[in-house]
Write a structure and sequence with these properties.
A hairpin with a 5-residue loop joins strand 3 and strand 4. The radius of gyration is 19 Å and the shape is globular. The protein has about 250 residues and is mostly helical. Helix 5 crosses helix 7. The chain has a three-stranded mixed beta sheet. A two-stranded antiparallel sheet has the order 1-5. The relative contact order is 0.13. The mean pLDDT is about 90. Helices cover about 55% and strands about 10% of the residues. The chain has one domain. The structure holds zinc ion. The site of zinc ion has 4 residues, from helix 3 and helix 7.
């Protein structure tokens, strides 16, 4: 049986309610974390250790979280697994800028995007359980390329083409795999949508709060290129269709 350890989720008394409530809680935690990290910027950079410690201190439970810089492009949040394939904790990897010693004030965009993923994971253990199930069953291996190429992508969007490609792709999965894939894709896209918003918002805020540490204000990546709401709608329609068909078969 797959399990999510106590060090990877919030206690029930803190974390409950609908999906909407849980997203609000994740945003609230990210906002509190921002207030703390904002105070730590007395110069243009802070150490990754200080970032990690502040994140730990801003999490209302004893969570296993570590932050690691790396050299290649793009930031990713990974869920860590222990030996029994249970979820034990989290790892946030943030791209290190060349020539820079620590996390820069302008990295706030990526950093607060990733911490939003972290808080979303903490407040939605069900999503982690589903991801874990999909990894062990091999569904992730079968679907990840499609997800990257067709759903979570900046490629030009055409509703009909995406609908067609999705219907075609789903034919190679059984009904359970189809439902897992669609539900988890929907969660992931909603979480990306929120994470981009958070990165944008806090890059703006931190620069306004430290005009002495920046030269000229910059703005974050726009999330519109991804067409999140349109693609989420396509997935939701598909799920409705599958559930309706399943109902009719009974
Ligand atoms: Zn993301």
């Amino acid at each position: 049986m797959l399990k999510i350890s106590q060090t990877a989720k919030l206690p029930l008394e803190i974390c409950k309610g609908s999906y909407k409530d849980r997203i609000s809680l994740a945003k609230e935690l990210n906002s509190k974390f921002f207030d703390e990290i904002n105070k730590k910027f007395t110069q243009k950079t802070i150490s990754y250790d200080l970032f990690e410690k502040t994140l730990k201190d801003s999490t209302p439970a004893n969570i296993d979280i570590s932050v690691q810089p790396f050299d290649k492009k793009g930031g990713v949040t990974c869920v860590g697994f222990d030996q029994d394939q249970d979820i034990a904790g989290y790892l946030i990897r943030i791209e290190k800028r060349p020539m820079m010693d620590g996390l820069g004030i302008l990295d706030t965009e990526v950093a607060l995007h990733e911490t939003m993923h972290y808080f979303s994971s903490l407040t939605n253990p069900k999503h982690n359980a589903k991801t874990l199930k999909m990894i062990t069953s091999g569904t992730i291996a079968k679907t990840e390329k499609f997800y990257r190429d067709n759903l979570y992508t900046r490629n030009e969007f055409n509703k009909e083409n995406t609908q067609k490609a999705l219907s075609e792709f789903l034919k190679q999965l059984n009904t359970e795999e189809q439902i897992d894939f669609l539900q988890s894709s929907r969660y992931r896209l909603i979480e990306e949508y929120n994470a981009y918003d958070e990165g944008y918002k806090y890059l703006d805020k931190i620069q306004d709060s430290h005009p002495e540490l920046i030269c000229e204000k910059i703005y974050a990546r726009e999330k519109e290129d991804f067409h999140f709401p349109e693609i989420i709608e396509i997935i939701t329609d598909k799920l409705k269709e599958i559930f309706a068909n399943r109902h009719n078969l009974k």
